[in-house]
Automatic annotation (TrEMBL):
Segment forming the signal sequence: none
GO biological process, alphabetically ordered: cell wall organization; peptidoglycan-protein cross-linking; regulation of cell shape
Name of the protein in question: ErfK/YbiS/YcfS/YnhG family protein
Entry GO MF terms: peptidoglycan L,D-transpeptidase activity; transferase activity
Domain L,D-TPase catalytic: 121-243
Species whose genome carries this gene: Sphingobacterium sp. (strain 21)
The entry's keywords: Cell shape, Cell wall biogenesis/degradation, Peptidoglycan synthesis, Transferase
Length: 300
């Protein structure tokens, strides 16, 4: 009896070890148990902007921390496409005249895109302004900064779909790069969005860098693909469109807000132009996914 129990425990332990892969990749492909999200109420900011000059790093950082709350600091850094680790690497910051605590108040993306209403979920990444936006049925849910592909390693533009994800993933480009909250969008190329350092310009090796809170939110929000054991794709994940190009030789585009508070705004018509050529396929893949998920639930 003792030997029998011992073998059961050994078998269970081996199963747990196998389940915990090095990259902690998840194979959960169900849509069950996802919390229902409500469309956030967004109060758009309509004021101006000013410059916070950083002459002495230590003094400037102390002044910045003293003047603004933790939430305001996060919003300011996000508007400048940097994280705290890169504060000392910039010479100035763009700061709203009135700093709100909800970054959605400063969205450059339209709150509503009517032609996206039939699409359950959609993610856009704008190369020109280094930012992403997430929509549910045409309503903006969240936006945030990004650091996309560098001039040498540009991010591929166009339509793709989310596929597999991993809480931690070692980059295929460099095994010293640990990517947190990684969600792959181009499996063959190894391109995805994830948390990584945000320096205030496109610096990535083709991927789409995010602040950690945004990376984790998208990790939970977007859907994985559905694949069979032989890796045959039964259903795609969430549609993603990367669009536009970045002026690597010009000034940082968000500083144009100093002269024109709407300088980086993306119109509803501009987004429609990007996704409309792909809308038929997006809706086809969405319907296919619903059928696959319904079939799986019925078979349980």
């Amino acid at each position: 009896m003792t030997k029998h129990v011992h073998w059961i425990l050994v078998t269970l332990s081996m199963g747990l070890l196998i389940a915990c892969s090095e990259n902690r990749q998840t194979n959960d492909q169900t849509d069950v148990g996802k919390p229902e999200r409500k469309t956030p109420k967004i109060n758009l900011y309509s004021g101006g902007y000013k410059t916070f000059v950083i002459k002495d790093n230590d003094t400037a950082f102390k002044s910045f921390k003293k003047r603004y709350t933790a939430q305001q600091q996060h919003v300011i850094l996000a508007l400048n496409r940097i994280d705290f680790n890169n504060f000392n690497n910039v010479d100035s910051l763009l700061i709203p005249d009135s700093v709100q605590t909800d970054i959605n108040s400063y969205t450059p993306f339209p709150l509503t895109v009517k032609e996206l209403k039939p699409v359950d979920k959609m993610v856009f990444f704008s190369y020109p302004i280094q930012a992403f936006a997430a929509y549910e049925n045409g309503q903006l849910i969240r936006w945030g900064p990004s650091s996309m592909g560098s001039k040498k390693y540009p991010t591929k533009t166009g339509l793709s779909f989310t596929n597999w994800k991993a809480e931690e993933h070692v980059s295929t480009a460099d095994d010293e790069w640990l990517l947190r909250w990684n969600f792959n969008i181009r499996n063959k190329e190894g391109i995805g969005w994830h948390q990584y350092t945000m320096p205030g310009y496109p610096a990535s090796h083709s991927c789409l860098r995010l602040l950690e809170n945004d990376a984790k939110w998208l990790y939970d929000w977007a859907e994985q693909w559905v694949v069979e054991k032989d890796q045959h794709v039964l259903a795609e994940g969430t549609p993603v469109i990367v669009f536009g190009s970045y002026d690597y030789e010009g000034d940082k585009p968000w500083f144009k807000l100093l002269q024109d508070p709407k300088a980086t705004n993306i119109t509803e018509q501009q987004l429609v132009k990007e996704f409309k050529p792909h809308l038929e396929r997006i809706l086809q893949e969405q319907e296919k996914r619903k059928q696959v998920m319904a079939s799986r639930r019925d078979s349980i």
